[in-house]
Amino acid sequence: MAKSFFVVKVLLISCLLLVSNLGFANSKNPLKADAIFTAIDNGIAINDHQQYLAYIDELDSLIAPNDAWRQLRKDRARCWSFDIYTEGEIDKALAFVEEALKNPLLAQYPSHQLDLAMCKAWYLEQNGEVEVALKSYNKAVNDAYKIEDLRLVADARSIRGYLHSYQGNFTQALEDLITAQSMYQNLNLPAWEELNLYEIANAYRRLGDQKSAIRYFKQLHQSKIASGNFDVANTISVSIAIAEEELGHLERAKARFNEAYLYWGKKGDQMGQATVGVNIAGTLIKLGEFEQAQQYLDSAAPHILASDEGFYAFLHLFQAQIYLAENQFDNALASVNEARDAFERVKNITGLAQLQQLKSEIFVKQLNWQQAYVALNEYVKLHNELDKKLLSSHTTEMRTRFNADQIEQENNHLIENQQLRDIELAMLEQNKLQQWIIIILGGLILLILSVFAYKQSQKNKLLSSLALTDDLTQLPNRRYIYDKAQLCLEQAIKAQVAFSVISFDADNFKAINDNFGHEVGDLALKLLAQICRNELSGDQEAARVGGEEFLIILPNTNKTQAYEIASTLVQKISNADFKSFPQGFKLTISAGVASLKSDNHKLSSLLKQADKALYQAKADGRNQAQMS
């Protein structure tokens, strides 16, 4: 099968070359234009923006007016070329993309249309229309999957992940960015891999995992130094400084900021120097060096526009802190209001929380207790909102790793389909005189796909059971148990019988891995799985749904019976024979029990009740079971 498929591919490519040679008579220099498009796709704009602009201008002389595909591809490249740091360029970009989206030929080229729509959303985000941009990014992700354009899926999830990260939605941010990273690797786009990895590091920094962020940043920094890309290396160094400041290493942060400030000064880049100036001012304020911080803010202020929401907001936040230290309360409140408007435009909850805390401190110094209480109460609300986001964020990496095989399969499927679609697109672009070739090739492709689909279906039958089993414990995995639980829940509701679940995990499992090593941790998980098999019977079933997390479904079992099963498991595991484990090894579990209620028929609610009971068991001292 593999050899015959290769022969057919050679035949397809040969026919396409014949068609292409006939079509070149109406073009100027499409081969050179395609080489430029390849350079653009590979990330020339990341490292050399001036060369990127030169390439776009050169495309005007290379593409024939009637070459619709390349003309639209050129529009895509030009859309992303506007410099958002130059005043008026965002408005020009939006005007350009609005006009480009009116082209009626876009209906024939969905990838071109989608990329232009995403480009428009990005400029709207830079213009402060964040919610509109986010809705567009969500639509772009869905549309990219529908047309199976792997590159646009990666771009859309990467750009959406950056926005989620800035807004504090770290779970969604890391899920988008890590998925995009996998896709860029499959597409062999190292420049975009590095850029996306930079955003992953930023997400970890904003999440609070500064050590992970610094590790990623330093990896990128060394790569850029080695390649001679000192501008980007300097930008990454600033990110390291921000992370160092968050860790409380203020002198280290100050030194890195100062190096970056001097670097941009020597380059004559006033905007770059201004942004670093805002950052170093924040560090100096924490060190109590208010006079020097004010000097940096004064130098930065003329170059930081209101449209640069992030830096503009922090500039006024830091200015307010200085005014407060100098007892200039009215000026401090005015700066707080300026910063608040900018933070609200980009939905930066972290920044808004800092502002409310600062506002409360100002009112306290003014002895305005009522307003201080109002500001502090608003700070608590914002902080609670941030805490909720942070509580869910720790599961992101685990969930993404758990779905890694699925992501890889989806990506490979997208790549295969994209290759076939590229062949089809190349055929459709040719002169009408060669349409008979397209019909023949279409038939060959259908034949190939039919044979491939048959082979794939046979292979999928073998892989399906593996895809639903946890490799370490040989228990069912998350996907299987959730589907089975939903089915059992629906049957219980229909038959009006009991249905319960038990959620449990190993106590202090991180300490086991740290003290005895991951091999012992794996043996402990296998032991938990074996005890579950020994204790469960009939249609009762256990599954591993996470690192040390397990879920048991119990059809025709009420809450009391489920609690007895959970208590038995707790006792059996606590009293298990640990002779084969290292000296001092101990293993216990905490379990939560929940049962179907007449007023709530949602699986998600049932699982949340079990998790809540599990958390209560942890809080009450572990090594026990609790009912919801």
For this entry, give a set of tags.
single chain, 628 residues, mainly alpha, Alpha-Beta Plaits, five-stranded mixed sheet, 5% strand, globular, disordered N terminus, transferase, membrane
Structure summary:
By secondary structure, this protein is mostly helical. The chain has helices at 2-23, 30-41, 44-47, 49-59, 68-79, 89-100, 110-126, 130-147, 150-167, 170-186, 190-207, 210-226, 230-246, 250-267, 270-286, 290-300, 309-325, 329-345, 349-365, 369-393, 396-402, 404-428, 435-467, 478-495, 509-516, 518-535, 559-574, 603-619, and strands spanning 499-506, 541-544, 549-555, 589-595, 625-627. The protein contains 28 helices and 5 strands.
Explained architecture:
This protein is mainly alpha-helical and 628 residues long. Among the domains are: 306-394; 478-627, Alpha-Beta Plaits, CATH 3.30.70. It contains 28 helices and five strands. The protein has a five-stranded mixed β-sheet, with helices on both faces. Helix 9 packs parallel to helix 11 (190-207).
